[in-house]
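Appendix B. Extra example for self-study. Work through it before the problem class; the solution is given directly after the inputs so you can check yourself.
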Amino acid sequence: MSNWPAETKYIGHSTARIDAPAKLTGKARYASDIQAEGWLYGMILRSKWPAAKILSVNLDKARQIPGVKAAVVARDGSFTIRFYGEEIAAVAGTSKQVCLDALRAIEVQAEVRHEFVVNENEARKENAAQVWAGSPNVPATPHVRENGSVDTAFPECAAVIKGFYTTAVQIHHPMETHGNTVSWTDDGVTAWASTQGVSSVRDGLAGALQLDHSQVRVITEYMGGGFGSKLGAGVEGALAAKLSKAAKAPVRLMLTRFDQSLAVGNRPSSFQKIKMGATADGMLHAFEMENYGTAGIGAGGDSGGGSGSADIPAPYIYKVPNTRVKQSAVAVNAGASRAFRAPGNPPASFGMESAMDDLAVKLGMDPLELRLKNDPSPIRQREYKLGAEKFGWKEKYQKPGSSSGVVKTGIGCAGAAWPAGGASRNTQGEAQINPDGSIEFRLGVQDIGTGTKTVIAVVAAEMLGLKPEQITVRVGDTRFPPGPGSGGSTTCGSVSATVFDVCTNALQQLQTQSGLADARGENWFAACKKLGVNPLVVHGKWQPGLTADHACGVQFAEVEVDTETGLVTVKKILGVHDCGLIVNQVTLESQINGGIIMGMGYALYEERVMDDLSGVVLNPNFETYKLPGIADVPDIEIVLINMPERGVIGIGEPATVPTAGAIANAVANAIGVRVCSLPITPAKILAALGKVPPATA
Amino acid sequence: MKNSEPENLGAHSRRTFFKSLGTVAATAATAQVQSVAAELEKINTEKIVGPNAVPVTLRVNGEKLQLLLEPRVTLLDALRNYSSLTGAKEGCDRATCGACTVLLGDTPIYSCQKLAIESQGIEITTVEGLAKNEKLSKVQQAFLDKDALQCGYCTPGFVMSVTALLKKNPRPNADDVKHACAGNTCRCGTHPRILQAALRAAGVETASKTEVVDYV
Amino acid sequence: MNAFTYATAHSPASARQLVADKGAYLAGGNDLLGLLKEYLVSADILVNIKSLPGLDKIERGEKFWTIGSLVTVAQIEDHAEIKETFPGLHEAASEVASQQIRNVATVGGNLAQHSRCWYFRHRDTQCLKKDGDLCYALNGENRYHSLFTGNTCISPVVSSLATIFASLDATAIVLRDGQETRQNMAELYQRAWENPLAHNSLKNGDLILRVEIPTTRSRSAYLQVSDRHAFDWALVSCAAAADVVDGKLKSPRVALGSISPVPHQVETANRFLDGKVLDNATATQAADMILKDAKPLEHNAYKVPLAHALIRRTLLKLKGDA
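Solution. Structure tokens for the complete assembly:
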């Protein structure tokens, strides 16, 4: 078992993001910036119907447009369309304009089907149109988990609440859309991909193109966010490759924002019918939940979380002796879900933490007290206590709805767990140490914006007694030793432990080769000089003892609700999080800010809106799919629980989990009634307050 | 010259009119009537170009960029697809995310919703034009210092918005920054740091709100 | 976006000639390029009108101010004397979209912009405004739609400037068939009230030249509420303007945006307010009158209490109380 050094110069401190200058000056080349020699523009034609049988696709007219170099079908022969936006064909041409014209010249013969369903509740009905012919939209038997005896436990409870808590389909919407530039030559395929997993894209592309893995190289020097949706090669990857092969030129095929809204994943919705009871002293005693949600036409090959598809963990972070949980995914004619930052957890936290506050009201208890009584995690217990003091919970807490005036204030809190966050044990890396003392680390991971490159530099500098700016870091290439996809909040742990090992090995070998007892720090250049002519290339891999998993976190929210307009203003969020050994504090804080703000979007603004009649996504844009902006963002305070003895734990996912629950509870605390449905819009606030007249037209 | 006003051309199609105008222009020039020449120059700028590619000259970051573009090509596409200036990003192509923000003169605009052909004759600044001799601008340096970027894809747009704000108002408060940056979207959730960076670039320091507490 | 030709016009007359039957005027381009990119409109020529002389000026006058149609929303927002003279106009301008849009968006373009109904803006729905045979919103996702309409289309006018201009009783001067015609805000949108295909009363080739704002109302105010705090369309917007003599309202006008195809004005409410000393009860009565005939739908009924609150607040703001 290895151990992190006790005294540190860089680990646990703050080092500025090492690639910041490249990103700030426009020098950083993202996948969408790649201009390979002779590159062509690529675009995808998508179905304008939610359900259809494609009989034939005629590309002739498209190919005749000057500048069009290739046109391919998404699937050969006749095929079935199951959602609005499903891929039909793709074109490559000398400009975006040429491609736009070509898409409109493609002739599609289709048997349009008017039998489709895009709404979860409609899809559950017996006579609903079937998304998959011959297969019901809802499986005949739900996933059931049962402990103890719920039926005998409820009558034993002193207080029982029932609630129906729902969450909307959320779209990842990374700022850089999915896509890549693919070059297919006789030597093989090179893809500059906007991905969270160079290795998984390599394997996926090789599979789709029936090539050996060794014939595909994936490069991701910079990419513009993924949040779980960019782990695979995607249809767009294979289409770009096919276009490149046909056109004999590299093809840059990036999705449009419209495309992005339809076909590359989302967080499933949830409809959580919860019944929960506690004994008079506030101990949770019985919990029953029926939940359904939609992962679109399916889970898209990526788990929606929990036990698959649209399932969520319940009763989430709490232990209830008697529980019964039934869950089922509902198929609808819409794009499939994909893993999305802490899959399953934000909806689970929202539902359960809403129920906790409702139960606290029923018991006449302070909701924080109820949590302290029932939360089994000692770390969260500590986080709640620390947070409550810093937040001023006791001073601020008022009974729900007792805030006076038109604009009411309220506070709420919620907890999070993230079972992963450790590391991928197969992570490898290498360093090339040159006789002049320069050193380059190469790892086949990618930096999705979390600061992975900086973490590598920080750990290397610490271990070698150098400065972070002396470390060259290269990631995002399948020719480097393999690393994990950036998922599960495991990248930080994976690379930290691997770089630790690379450095340990490097120091040993330098000692052997140079004869110097300690090659670190001031001896570094002397030791390297003794290498002579050849650089030293050292390998390493993840080692046990340096990383851990299971991060916890709690958040507190303070809101203002205008009871006449329904507008919610989040004034403050306090996040109290643990992530073991802090590697680089400044980038860690940025990730927590980001998780909170994304959670706030989930709470208040974000929702994929489907139209029942036409089956289209009504808001495939940033105008009506509303993301939080700088004017919405509250004052954010962070408390980090330093636990170096646990080793490195990732933070990306747990930070976004409790925000929506905390905000929803604060809103309910302010106005005295609960909005049970995310996003909490002005319309829903006014409805909850009983101010909305019935429809007349 | 009143007679050459288009509304007096009766049955002539405007294409015919503008074709014939070339001849008129030549005749007028030889007549060396200064005022007439000036008037004609004005009308010649009214000539119809396209739909095929036409020469377009952009002045970007102090340099001339001579391109051949269809009139429908946006300024963003001209930069990203017809030159190597990929600093301005495409996030939405619909004037909603701000990743494409560049300065026209001192004014931040969405380059995705502006035609390249109408962006001629005015200095365009992209994020590539801010650092001088490898030295980051004050705004860029503040973004680095405050870690006001994560994946970095929205960053060029925010940097341009803040740069423009500080040119217009060197001492902005937090509300001014929010007003100026409301048209930029960040999905990584870097907003608090962007606010702090903008204020730092304006000479206002904000204290860290993070506390590190030992568990034991 | 289909291919088009392009020209820069130097006089309104040549602009009209160039735009002909199938062209479009290009100024800020926010709305036009958005429509073209989604293939919602087509234009064989884009006529850049930003060089038209004299239309980019704000001119103050004794009886009225003139704002050229090429004045940008940012120019209005930044104009110190407008902020002083027509505070509601300043507030409305500052709520328009984002800095980048305000910097290029023109007064003419803001008034002439097309519906933002998400069915109209969707490339694959054939709604009434696109000559289809049904309004998808009527029984569909109508959370952002109208409480009032004179036809079968329920998409509301979203121009913030139209709302404040209506309360200030401003007039748009429109060049039509070579003649300058005058249209107040009710007239400028009347056709959208009557005809589902129309976004406003402008005909093909019409060019808004300027807007005249009478100085009779010394006080004005504008408020809007959106889902988010900035860069979002108003769910409801409200503008009010009046003169105040001895504490009493004179010539008051209230107008609302985003709840009707026209800036929503109710003359009986304006008359009711005339000569009144504003207090909460008076403002409430006016709000009741203004919303009396609202026809809320399944998802937009929240706009009734929201509009009610905004009317009261805007009126009280006019008084200087809020």
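Self-check: The first strand of chain B starts at residue 54 and ends at 60. If your reasoning did not lead you there, revisit section 3.
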